[in-house]
């Protein structure tokens, strides 16, 4: 059951469901097949149902469209086609098994004929006939109402050398974290899917379960359309969209990368969007989630870049507690989606575009340990986020790679200027986790009135300068830093007149998107 199937409503009978599959050519059989199984309490933790391990009632299981609840004995049944992934929707207070790389194993792949054999990167081997019983193991787990999770945007390595960058730049400092789990928000790879294994093995050292979102660089590009583009992803990670509960929060992982569209040059490419089957899953999933729960949508391409985003808006805009998170752009942003974009909710929808691990695709001059600075195109450093959930509230912390946790802003100003030039000289402040809700101010030498800075949509002059400097140093470089983009978290103001000659201290105080103050300082020299 995949994207080539037309939309099936919840009220269709099993017969009509299969009929549509057969007509679409996805079923490959003329008889109905029904998968059955049990969700059980895995008391000994071996992942298999042994005598004395009871079934669990009221747990939801899905075929990536329909969702059913287990009966009093933990049993469930769902229709399947010859390309179906079945999974348990992990309830709060329970954990699924994980493999040696700490990847959650909450699913069963039913591909009797396996993935297409002509792809460069292998997919799923033939799974054979449908098993008599597909059983999903769960074990009790402590999930406090307040917890943290790690968010990686676009690690995107294209070599073992870049796998090592990730290990030294972000993974090493996360080992021993108290986060409950982590998520990579797509572009796990940079097209070279053979690197999934070493990357997964490294991330496993962090020591927490790790979920994955599919990105546009994680695809089988040999597929002529979207139908089979996720086969290698399936092999390593299972379903390309799914959901789970953790503590008081419901998470929905989306596949919003649609492969196989034709661009103006006549070449196959991708676009952001959700097909009808996935939208049906989201609708069915959210119908089972109480309004008092926080819902977190996780995707690769930002919500504002999805072709049919208003269809998703209709499913979430009446919920009082809902946020969404993506990667893809290689710049950080807090977007507040309003009616101007077709949103009809009472309050704007908060969408987070997450900082990327690879920054600008691992470009830039290397530092003393041989890792490129990889500054993002908006002037913010590469890194990751740590998000804290507390009931229906959340707080996002920006963490720059290998920098102290309090490194939250940068100040750009010249090293020296004349006193006469001060009123025409701008100070720029890049608040990495800033937003339209932030307030930024500065003062000189810790005295006098605070001066408010104006939020601007401009390239960060710091990024512009380092790019120009590096391009001048290596004019023949085949991989220069990418062109800057207007930064969504940049403020500026002119220096005040009347500054005395000598070294002067610029002191900045800025709030982030959550109203928390952060500080920074920079020295400049005033000439007579």
Account of the protein in words:
The structure is a single chain. 14% of the residues lie in helices and 31% in strands. By secondary structure, it is of the alpha+beta class. Helix 3 (196-204) links the parallel strand 10 (181-184) and strand 11. Helix 5 (276-286) runs parallel beside helix 6 (309-316). The termini are far apart.
Unreliable segments of 5+ consecutive residues: 1-31
Counting helices, strands and paired strands, the structural category is alpha+beta
Task: Please identify the top-level CATH class of the largest domain.
Answer: Alpha Beta
Rg to the nearest angstrom? 25 Å
Number of domains: 3
Full CATH superfamily name of the largest domain: Metallo-dependent phosphatases
In round numbers, the mean pLDDT is 93
The CATH topology of the largest domain is given as Purple Acid Phosphatase, chain A, domain 2
Contiguous helical run count:
7
Shape: elongated
β-strand percent reads: 25-35%
Q: How much helix is in the residues?
A: 10-25%
Beta-strand segment tally: 30
The biggest beta sheet reads: 6 strands, mixed
| Shape-level CATH architecture of the largest domain | 4-Layer Sandwich
Sequence of strands across the biggest β-sheet: 12-13-16-17-19-18
Separation of the first and last Cα atoms = 75 Å
